[in-house]
What we know:
Two copies of one chain form a homodimer. Chain A is of the alpha+beta class. Chain A has a single domain (7-198), classed as Trna Endonuclease, Chain: A, domain 1, CATH 3.40.1350. Chain A is built from five helices and twelve strands. Chain A has helices at residues 34-51, 119-130, 152-161, 169-175, 190-198, and strands at 56-59, 64-70, 76-82, 90-94, 97-106, 111-113, 134-141, 146-151, 166-168, 177-178, 180-181, 187-188. Chain A has a six-stranded mixed β-sheet with strand order 1-4-5-7-8-10, sandwiched between helices. In chain A, strands 2-3 form a two-stranded antiparallel ribbon. In chain A, strands 6-9 form a two-stranded antiparallel ribbon. In chain A, strand 11 (180-181) and strand 12 form a beta hairpin. Chains A and B meet through strand 2, strand 3, strand 4, strand 5 and helix 2 of A and strand 2, strand 3, strand 4, strand 5 and helix 2 of B.
Amino acid sequence: xxxxHYPGGMKPPVSKVEIPKGKKLHLKVAPGNRGLDFExxxxxxxxxxxxxxxxxxxxxxxxxxxxxxxxxxxxxxxEAFFQTQSTTDYNGVYQGHYIDFExxxxxxxxxxxxxxxxxxxxxxxxxxxxxxGIAFFLINWHLLNExxxxxxxxxIEFYRSHPRSSIPYEEMKExxxxxxxxxxxxxxxxxxxxxHFLNNDKTK
Amino acid sequence: xxxxHYPGGMKPPVSKVEIPKGKKLHLKVAPGNRGLDFExxxxxxxxxxxxxxxxxxxxxxxxxxxxxxxxxxxxxxxEAFFQTQSTTDYNGVYQGHYIDFExxxxxxxxxxxxxxxxxxxxxxxxxxxxxxGIAFFLINWHLLNExxxxxxxxxIEFYRSHPRSSIPYEEMKExxxxxxxxxxxxxxxxxxxxxHFLNNDKTK
Lengths: 204, 204
């Protein structure tokens, strides 16, 4: 998740958020936690897909560099550091097809800063595409209350030609697909994956 | 990795092992660390596949439950615990096809104890198969110096009918495929994946 800055671009681990029945999902969190909120909502959507047998998408755990471990108690880790994910946060399978994506939030209303994407994620997604995997970003325009599925090939092309720039909202819209929001799943991105990547709807 | 027991079935994180050029890969480690050795060797094999553009298989980071974080220094984690992977250790993509597997070591020469496999891994692999993913185990018969690729559907069937038992070596051999060992890749399991799962060689 972007927009939740730790020194060195590191990210905190996120516990699975249980949504009590009948409770509205849009949790009230401090502005700094919006990125985590988005992650929890994606996890909820993925849980829904698994429960319904529609797809199996899992979040990779946040990598942690362990420095000191107390084996007498647990083992209990007593010194460790968050590491940057060298891949993306999510991958999985839909009907045999490999799916890989990264989720990003921005509070901008006009453009998505590419500085939000580490080079290693671009490189990872390039490898996914080379292996014919389905690769995309879910971009959360937080203040607009819109989430877009944007195919990774477009983002990569933009990144490679303007690495320090931002993708204007209007331009991203032309290349992306608005994700339907609801209660369960919170973000219903799977129909877009099927339609865009598997039904040869390559008009965009 | 099995056979490297932590209290509560937890597993230590493993750093990527760099193999210096021309150096033999079979590192000398304490017997208790053999499981980690196997993991490092699989990681090396996966690195080879990525470098050659043959497949993209990554290891999921070991999940860690963070309890206390010192934000003034880093952030530095000052209290945390290893968690059991709720999925498998490895997944990835070969030519669009989703691959998911777990690596296990045993020091038995006669049978592979199913207690080595947590139920949640069986359940995860069942979901992978339901989504038409390629699912298997790499089983390292450490004292026999043999590694087999064993399709997950066979292991799952055995597990579901004899959950507290062991799979005899000879029976596993009938359902598995001997993995060719070498210098790079250390364990060349990809040709078996292609042959068994993708070329309709379902004779076993």
